[in-house]
Amino acid sequence: MQITRPPAVSMWRKQTTNLGFLTLRYLVIASGRYTRTCLTNCVKVLVGRKTFFHDHDLIFQQYVLQLIGFRPIQWLTCIGFPKEGPGSQAFRIMHAINFARSSGLVYLHTPFSVIGHADRPQQKWANAWETFFNLGVGEKACDVERHQVVNYTAGKQAGGLRLFFGWENRLDELDDHFKALVPDDARTKIKSEREGLLKIQKYFAMAL
Question: How many domains does the chain have?
Fold first, then answer.
């Protein structure tokens, strides 16, 4: 007699296999990048130049330390791309806050430093948007070394961050968490001491 597995079991096995493949692929690609960076840094040491690791290298390093049980990832911050406008960077920070809370991490706030479409000196432009969105209120400042915190922007771009914390097959759930954190004007206004959320609620009403 042929035994037919329940659909839920078959789906679970398929998802598990897919996650295993994606994780292996990430480790192979990321380890290759990390090795190239290490070799480049060796050359820099020989010629007397300062070594440097990209964010995606540091993320890979932290993930390996977490895998072997030496040091779990604890902190998440968000540094946007220099050419991004204020809305895009604020939106990304809100996703980072949501990801941290949903994954049991601590969000460490990094203030805006470079924002695209500036109509005044960059520092004043960045400070103005930092004050407007007010996203750092109630959050701890990012005062740790780069190798101790994951940059959400780089982690998402590298493709590993969702894998690290089991969100690859649960993106709808993560999205629901985000919508609960930042509702649009058609939903009940959020109850929070964070003034910036009320502003973002209006700013991103069409995006949600």
Answer: 1
Q: According to the model, what pLDDT value does residue 197 have? A: 52
Q: What is the pTM of this model?
A: 0.78
In whole angstroms, what is the distance from residue 20 CA to residue 158 CA?
17
User: Rounded CA gap, 71 and 24, in Å?
Assistant: 20
Query: Does a structural domain hold residue 32?
Result: no
Q: How far is CA 133 from CA 3, 60, 106, 126, 129, in A?
A: 58, 31, 20, 11, 6
Interatomic CA distance for residues 188 and 191, integer angstroms: 9
Structure tokens at 38: 């290490």
**Residue 23 domain-assigned?**
no
Residue 154 covered by a domain = yes
CB 130 within 8 A of CB 80: no
The SS3 call for residue 77 is strand
The answer for residues whose C-beta is within 8 angstroms of residue 60's C-beta and 6 or more apart is 30, 31, 33, 34, 158, 160
156-159 LR contacts (CB < 8 Å, sep 24+): 157/56, 158/26, 158/30, 158/56, 158/59, 158/60, 159/26
User: If residue 167 lies in a helix (H) or strand (E), which one and from where to where?
Assistant: none
Query: Residue 120: which domain range?
Result: 54-203
pLDDT tens column, 156-198: 876 688 888 888 888 889 888 887 776 543 343 333 434 545 5
Is the Cβ–Cβ distance between 167 and 174 less than 8 Å?
Answer: yes
Residues in the chain, overall count: 208
